[in-house]
Amino acid sequence: MLTxxxxxxxxxxxxxxxxxxxxxxSGMLACDKAFDxxxxxxxxREDHKRHGIGWxxxxxxxxxxxxxxxxxxxxxxxxxxxxxxxxERDMGFVISDYPGDSTLVLVSRSHAxx
Length: 114
Hints:
By secondary structure, the protein is of the alpha+beta class. 21% of the residues lie in helices and 37% in strands. The chain has one domain (10-110): Aminopeptidase (3-Layer(aba) Sandwich).
């Protein structure tokens, strides 16, 4: 689902420079058919990291997920991706071991439906 957005169950969010000349980040949200669970993946160009782009993009996607009524949002991260893991932790995501692969962690956030 992350590679084929359909704009109902999956959506891609793009970030461009202020003048629109270059894409600097991409974020993807893929939801299950019941809109209970979503997976997010974010990529930021190396030369644009540490400027708050990842933070703002994740906040935007998390808010979008909330508007869809998702109960949980998660991401699979390399255990070595300390910056992403710390950012997600700061945003209230919980870090846990990824089943079956010690090189990965599962980063998740639960949200109760109103």
